[in-house]
Fold these 2 entries.
Entry 1:
Amino acid sequence: MTLKKIIEEKNGVYFITFTCHKWLNLFSLTSSYDLVYKWFDVLISKRHQIAGYVIMPNHLHVIIALKNSNQTINTIVSNGKRFMAYEIVKRLEMQKANEILPELTKDVTLREQKKGQLHKVFEPSFDVKVCRSYDFITQKLEYIHNNPCSKKWMLAKEPVEYRYSSAKFYAEYNEHNGSIITTYKELFIDLNAGSRTEDPAEKQ
């Protein structure tokens, strides 16, 4: 679902997706994959866990586990997007990307301008699904790891060949790109897979 309300729970595992404004390939155009890894490092330093991810040219899929967090998933994602947006704009300005920068400014609303926002780097909302079983997590991991190999993208022949995902980590069971991935079986969240009722939306 596209998130328009606050998720109050501060425990759980979440499959998150957010996209660049108008699906522009801002991650690849600015080589900003490193910004995502920096965000992951911040999350891990706060005892959150990353179970899997893929950074596509214009969007990110990630599975994040929270336990007794002092912030909601809304705040965590918003802070990450804000940090990355600021750095992406800096890189575009350094590149003198005069065709793209106007695209990021013209859709900023008056209300956003009053709050000091000058560019719209990401779509304002993000998609979130609560992971209530290990089966659901493995389903999402398979989806995100195969994303670069889809006919639409064709960025790699095999998931492990794509550099900006956790596919290689799972294949080799090792650290990946400087961020420690916690396998879905090691998450500190008890999913109670055998006793909880799955959300019907998870099967969509």
Entry 2:
Amino acid sequence: MSSSVLISGTSGFVGKHLSAYFKSTYPKMNLIELNRSSNNQQNSINWDQIKNLELPDVSSFIHLTGLAHDTKKTNSESKYFEINTDLTVLLFKKFLESNASQFIYMSSVKAAADQVNTELFETIDPNPKTAYGKSKLLAEQKIQNLYATFINNHPHSQKKYYILRPCMIHGPGNKGNLNLLVNFVNKGIPYPFAAFENKRSFLSIDNLVFVIGKIIERNIDSGIYNVSDDQAISTNELVQMIGETYNKKIKLLKIPIFFIRALFGGLDILNAKIGSEQLNKMVENYQVNNSKILKALDVKLPVSTKEGLKTTIFSFQNN
């Protein structure tokens, strides 16, 4: 693969891993990095430069830049739409003006639903509740509307768009909720939420970058695609995996669910740093179906759910 690829957000967690993966897997690929600051590095540009920049040799745009969901609610709603929606529209319009044939947008399953009772498919009627999810969904809708207008005026165009909805991404260097759970278990504190029998999907960074690479390789149909590992696991299983990695004996406490809900509801009222939202992230059911993307690409993911999680957990041990 010898094409030029523009990637926004290479300074972030996914961007760093994707850049490293492309450099090792596709050594002939020319990477152009788009970040807040270019740092005057070769093949690096910033958002102020993108408006007037000519990109005649770029074949694919990969848009990773985004404002992540903040459970502490320190970001204003307008900030989510400014970064997650407006910047996406700006870059997508640049894509439509260019000679590039592919646009990959990193959205989120939270653009579809905050809670999942059974299993999340791409066919769900989206109903996000947070500013984060709403801003991601609006970006998706604007991409689809702009694309439809463009294709109507250019019916023979070969341009494609891919909206990826990943679930919880993890891997070495990740500092998210999984890291918090690892720190909790590593202290030897009994896990108090074992009464919650949940199933949730995760996504290894190795599987994510593999999928993105295959999208660039293959000419699949435009559309929305969920991205997750193949199997969902319970938080209880995850806690036990952490204990095994750290060689700690884990005690699972089945405290009545109604008592835990009441306790965390009280923490919400007190505006504590941890509350119902953080609890839900640990114990919610959130199974994501990935069959559409795997069928379209005709591939199997390189890393199993447990292999990926163990790699991540082990990486925290070395920090």
